[in-house]
């Protein structure tokens, strides 16, 4: 099969022919229909993710068609089109039984701990636990984002912060997960302030319904959010994984506010200073989040259907496998609005 393989940190991905993955016991082999290119893939490309061993095929945000099923699989057959969370939980351990699949000790992460979906095929273990049917009529390029950015934002808003209608949500970072948080928070009835330093991204956020936008390169975002919301946000979503935005996300909250760390701390930012005075004085709640348990897909899909939520504005670039390196390099600086999705695996 054709794949884009990383052999050196920050080097161009090699377009190579590699062996098709074996079908895992209890798992399936998917023909990849679409695969997003995410900031987390950039962390892989730069060598900031300690789980990755070279040579490696990145890619973790995918949807696909089942081409083969392994022993023990009961829910799926060849021809089924499916979506999957990027954290593939075992479904059998105590954490999985309690519904906490994202902390499963046996979890497998294509694109990180095994070969990923920058390829024509990807192996997906624990298929009966993790896969969900691709809704009929949903564009695979949009569905790919439901493997990471959309699902991560949804779980941050609902599974961690428990956002309520009428609340103010401040989102730091108007990239793929930030824009997903904007669209989903609005669908939940919340009002959203978006913070970024790229005017084009803020313009996109305003077009998508943000109640306010703040250019942090031109204004103090904490003061601006407090002014826009009449005293501070109820919930803050940090979608970049940077010390400055993490601190500002906490400081912009009103008392008893909730902040969710969505951005991945990596490289030089594994450890960050936290304004504990704000946490203490404001009696704030600070949550970490990573992905979404697969059992929550029905509620997400129900929200999308019930509100007629259009996620298509997220996908602004449909690219070929050969474009993956250039799209990864975009994350070295301020990236353009929207996300890039690989839809052509032949060129």
Strands, helices and their partners?
Elements: E1 2-5, E2 14-17, E3 28-37, H1 39-46, E4 62-69, E5 81-83, H2 94-97, E6 121-124, H3 127-130, E7 132-133, H4 140-144, H5 149-160, E8 168-172, H6 176-187, E9 191-196, H7 199-207, E10 212-215, H8 221-229, E11 233-238, H9 243-251, E12 253-261, H10 276-282, E13 285-288, H11 297-307, E14 315-320, H12 324-330, E15 339-344
Parallel strand pairs: 8-9, 8-11, 9-10, 11-12, 12-13, 14-15
Antiparallel strand pairs: 1-2, 3-4, 3-6, 3-15, 4-5, 5-7
Helix pairs in contact: 5-6
Structure description:
The chain has 347 residues and is an alpha/beta fold. It folds into two domains: 2-148 and 292-344, Quinone Oxidoreductase, Chain A, domain 1 (Alpha-Beta Complex), CATH 3.90.180.10; 153-288, NAD(P)-binding Rossmann-like Domain (Rossmann fold, 3-Layer(aba) Sandwich). 28% of the residues lie in helices and 23% in strands. The protein contains twelve helices and 15 strands. The strands form three sheets. Strands 3, 4, 5, 6, 7, 14 and 15 form a seven-stranded mixed β-sheet that branches. A six-stranded parallel β-sheet has the order 10-9-8-11-12-13, with helices on both faces. It has a two-stranded antiparallel sheet with strand order 1-2. Helix 5 (149-160) packs across helix 6 (176-187). The longest helix is centred in the middle third of the chain and has 12 residues, at 149-160. The mean pLDDT is 96.
Key descriptive features of the protein:
347 residues; alpha/beta; Quinone Oxidoreductase, Chain A, domain 1; Rossmann fold; 2 domains; seven-stranded mixed sheet; six-stranded parallel sheet; globular
